[in-house]
Write a structure and sequence with these properties.
The chain is built from eight helices and nine strands. By secondary structure, the protein is α/β, with parallel strands linked by helices. Helix 5 links the parallel strand 3 and strand 4. The N and C termini lie far apart (40 Å). The structure holds adenosine-5'-triphosphate. The site of adenosine-5'-triphosphate (ATP) has 16 residues, from helix 5.
């Protein structure tokens, strides 16, 4: 069936990669169906939410059967553009950036870091995990030639905003911000912020105050 993707709520869309990863694992282990309660247990989303999420794209689980894993995966692949290679760049090849270049999503899906940028001359010109590192001055030209719209930002926080301005000026539409800085960007640019220390603090808080 054809799905109007503009009708999928953002909160649902954000959970799709989570479902996708788990279902891929199921398929790899030869499972053909899954119940919403099994899924719920694995991805830690309550089963009512899962049923509602899935109903947006016409996957109605059958009582006593559950959901067809292959059907769900083919839908997710289309929706998440998993069939197309999504090219990503990384800016800031420090410790964290280097770890991402070495990891490079090799096991997950069709996302790949194509190029990295830095201003440190001792890093520019190197290759880490098959990814070439260029000078940030070349950013605009290189991304235009390579059709890249997404950046992973792993620079020191005091330079995050001016660099974000530069990235947006070059045509970037999505920034995965790993710096603690809150970035201001135009309305047509999306920033997802991953502040590792905040995430860790929040986990510790929940463990302390809401023991399972
Ligand atoms: P390292 O020890 O390699 O410096 P780190 O993660 O502790 O790692 P940070 O100070 O957070 O280092 O810097 C991360 C990376 O961002 C470094 O490679 C640094 O050269 C780079 N960087 C700093 N300023 C800029 C900038 N203006 N544009 C692009 N990259 C920058």
């Amino acid at each position: 069936m054809d799905i109007d993707q503009t009708k999928i709520p953002q909160a649902t869309a954000k959970r799709l990669p989570l479902y996708y990863r788990f279902l891929e694992g199921l398929q790899a282990s030869g499972k053909h169906r899954v119940s919403s309660s099994e899924l719920s247990e694995a991805v830690k989303v309550d089963s009512a939410t899962i049923r509602r999420d899935f109903s947006y794209f016409g996957a109605l689980g059958k009582k006593g059967y559950g959901y067809n894993v292959n059907y769900l995966l083919s839908f997710f692949r289309k929706t998440l553009d998993q069939d197309e290679l999504t090219k990503v760049t990384l800016v800031g090849v420090g410790n964290l950036g280097t770890a991402f270049l070495n990891y490079n999503f090799s096991k997950s899906n069709n996302t790949r870091i194509e190029m990295a940028f830095d201003v440190d001359d001792s890093k520019v010109g190197n290759v880490i995990g098959d990814v070439p590192i260029y000078h940030l001055d070349e950013f605009k030209e290189r991304i235009a030639n390579n059709n890249v719209e997404v950046v992973i930002l792993t620079v020191p926080s005091h330079v995050a905003q001016p660099i974000a301005d530069q990235l947006v000026g070059a045509g970037i539409k999505g920034i995965l911000n790993f710096t603690p800085a809150r970035l201001s960007v135009p309305d047509d640019v999306r920033v997802h912020h991953i502040d590792l220390s905040v995430e860790l603090q929040s986990l510790i808080y929940f463990l302390k105050h809401y023991p399972l």
